[in-house]
Amino acid sequence: MARIENDLSSGNVFTKLVLFAIPFLVSNLIQSLYNVADMLIVGWFCGTESMSGVNIGGQVTFILTQIVVGLCMGGTVLIGQYVGAKRHDALKKVITTLITLLVILSLVITAVMMFLKTSVLRLIRTPDESFAESERYLAVTLAGIIFIFCYNAFSAILRGMGNSRQPLYFVTAACVTNIVLDLLFVAIFRWAAFGAALATVISQALSVCLCIVYMVRNNFQFDFKLRSFKLYGEQLRLVFKIGLPTCIQNAVTSISFMFITAIVNIVGGVTASAGVGAVGKFNSFVFMPIIAMSVSISAMSAQNFGAGRIDRAVSACRIGVIFSASLAFAFFIFVQIFPDAILGIFGTDPGMIRDGVIYLRSFSIDFLIIPFIFCINGFLIGGGHTLFTLICSILSSALLRVPVCYFLGITLGWGLKGVGLGAPAASAGVLMVIIVYLFTGKWKRNVIIHDRNTAE
């Protein structure tokens, strides 16, 4: 067990945060490469229709994954606080509960979404030219969603225990496998979106198997035998209390992207869909390091809130903001100078590159704002303030971004430029709300410890 846990509530804050964040940062960069491989290889070997199909089908799978990531964040924070408070009895129960819950959810969601997949694709106005490819990609990824869910659960557990290295090894193995299989299924067999989806599922299954082998060999709290799967009421309640707001937050954000996908499909059709999809894959390289820092801040804050060291949590947040903002600014400058080269990586279709450049130039303004939001939210989540981060997400995604995208893109007729400006406009509004909340001082109250003491 000692090989899995890592105490983040003692030692130098900067050193601890950096040593935790670097493997997670590299892991997320590799995850970005993992995600972009499908789009890149399909774009080069199968054309715009298949590329659009991967983008649209992947959007639906992404929503389901983000819902699970939200619940896993609840597990990460709860595990981190139990580790910080040295409560290993409760730690075992929450790990068992989280794994069992995610397995059940994966089976239910797979069954429901297999029935609804065609209706969902029609709802978001999938272009006729790419509808078949979108449906094939979505069907395969839904069939393997249990592996996506389990991988996220295991990674969340390890991060909560302060271990960010092992998920890096697992995602690296999955990424290499995915690229090799993409080249085999797409470039050689010409299976297009179906092949890209199959490569993704097989790669995720491999990462799950590696996680299980590692945990069993290191005397993990859970032995993965059938009789060990169970739900503990108190831990289940706390996982939902902490994770459900983040879950809803991720769902609202992801659904808003579906609406934006629909707006893009109305504004520009299949070339716009492919261009925006390519931009989305590139943006993952920008946002994943920032997200990595945010989650690292959250894990470190959770352990320090649990240990009563709020000052260390604040220091971690401050360091993370400086790092993330500096990196995002560099990306912004790069995007403004070389947008054509970035889009050219994903294919040679002139329409796709033209539409993608228009969208990327306006959207990239968000790079200058989002680091502050992500890092501060990670800090607040570590203290259990997930209800506030949920409110901010709904404000950003549903109440600001989608209406602004529609107004600028369709009502004013600015097209993809207007759709791209919706993101920075929404982020600016949310950042103002966060700043006001920080001045109230309510973030100093540890929601989880308070709730646990009341229950006891």
Q: Would you write up a description of this structure?
A:
This protein is mainly α and 456 residues long. It has 15 helices and no strands. The protein has helices at 13-46, 48-84, 88-123, 128-143, 145-160, 165-188, 192-217, 233-306, 310-337, 339-344, 350-363, 370-382, 386-411, 416-440, 447-455. Helix 2 (48-84) crosses helix 8 (233-306).
Write the layout of secondary structure elements.
Elements: H1 13-46, H2 48-84, H3 88-123, H4 128-143, H5 145-160, H6 165-188, H7 192-217, H8 233-306, H9 310-337, H10 339-344, H11 350-363, H12 370-382, H13 386-411, H14 416-440, H15 447-455
Helix pairs in contact: 1-2, 1-6, 1-7, 1-8, 2-3, 2-4, 2-5, 2-7, 2-8, 3-4, 3-5, 3-8, 4-7, 5-7, 6-7, 8-9, 8-11, 8-12, 8-13, 9-12, 11-14, 12-14, 13-14
- DSSP helix fraction: over 70%
Tally the helices. Answer: 15
Largest sheet entry: none
**First CA to last CA: what distance?**
27 Å
Q: Based on helices, strands and strand pairing, what is the structural class? A: mainly alpha
H-E string: HHHHHHHHHHHHHHH
* Subunit arrangement of the protein: single chain
Could you say which overall geometry the principal axes of the C-alpha atoms support? globular
- Outline the low-pLDDT stretches: 450-456
Strand content: under 5%
**What Rg do the Cα atoms give?**
21 Å
What is the residue-averaged pLDDT? Answer: 84
Number of DSSP strand runs: 0
Keywords:
456 residues; mainly alpha; globular
